[in-house]
Design a protein that fits this description.
The chain is of the alpha+beta class. It is built from 5 helices and 10 strands; from the N terminus they run E-H-E-E-H-E-E-E-H-E-E-E-H-H-E. The chain has 2 domains: about 1-105, Pseudouridine synthase I, catalytic domain, N-terminal subdomain (Alpha-Beta Plaits), CATH 3.30.70; about 110-245, Pseudouridine synthase I, catalytic domain, C-terminal subdomain (Alpha-Beta Plaits, 2-Layer Sandwich). The longest helix has 13 residues, at about 30-40.
């Protein structure tokens, strides 16, 4: 048996999240496992670096699977893509050691939340960025976000239905920057809770609109109560952007400009 790692991209709008749910429910995992099974000529099950919810996109999801089939890296990529729908694709494949695990070997994860900020909506960004028509103060949003950096109990920023054993996570870095009409919220942490980035985005958007002071993000964090956390932002603008692994695995690094945080 050989272990193969894959890099996956997908547009989450027409998927009911990552995780296979059985029946006719369309998920990324279900589509990918079907395609890999055709190439491997035996049933394939994959493990991913991080499960995404309905409507959430991925620039660099990572999965692994075990197989006895002998295929070249090119065949894993081209063959799988030939059996995948247009809104999901394999970007790279690589043989890895048996101790590699897409989820448990990960040292960090990066998300990007994309906001389209202008008075008039955009048909081009629909479903790919969250439209906020009121002006947003990016400096206030960025300043407020810095209170979340570090190791904290993020109970206020996780979904009520989140099943994680602990609400404690380490947020390494968070930045809010404007690029024309787009505002990019980039977040790097060791791991994330369910809806954590969307809840952070909801708080920061509220602050950016001037409805709350900049210290509200810290107040929400300290409350450790989801009821104090405000509105959960819609999934349209959320992208699973990158996964960090030990250098020894020598996995391809995505070149989306997602994890490049300039110093203050």
């Amino acid at each position: 048996m050989q272990r193969i790692a894959l890099g996956i991209e997908y547009d989450g709008r027409q998927f009911h999240g990552w995780q296979a749910q059985g029946g006719n429910i369309r998920t990324v995992q279900q589509s990918l496992e079907y395609a890999l099974t055709q190439v491997a000529a035996h049933p394939v099950r994959v493990a991913c670096a991080g499960r995404t919810d309905t409507g959430v996109h991925a620039l660099a999801q990572v999965v692994h699977f075990d197989t006895g089939a002998q295929r070249t890296v090119h065949n894993w990529v081209a063959g799988t893509n030939a059996n995948l729908p247009p809104d999901v694709n394999v970007s790279w494949a690589q043989a890895v050691s048996s101790d590699f695990h897409a989820r448990y070997s990960a040292q960090g994860r990066h998300y990007r939340y994309q906001i389209f900020n202008r008075p008039v909506r955009s048909s081009l960004w629909a479903g790919r960025a969250t439209w906020i028509y009121r002006p947003l103060d990016v400096m206030r949003m960025h300043q407020a976000a810095q209170a979340l950096v570090g190791t904290h109990d993020f109970s206020s920023y996780r979904a009520r239905a989140c099943q994680a054993a602990s609400p404690v996570r380490t947020l390494h870095q968070i930045r809010v920057e404007r690029e024309g009409e787009l505002i990019m919220l980039r977040v790097h942490a060791n791991a994330f809770l369910q809806h954590m980035v969307r809840n952070v985005a909801g708080v920061l958007i509220t602050i950016g609109q001037g409805e709350r002071p900049t210290d509200w993000a810290a107040q929400v964090l300290d409350a450790r109560n989801r009821a104090c956390g405000g509105v959960t932002a819609v999934p349209d603008g959320l992208y699973f952007a990158q996964v960090d692994y030990p250098a020894a695995y020598d996995l391809p690094c995505p070149h989306h400009g997602i994890s490049l945080y300039e110093s203050d």
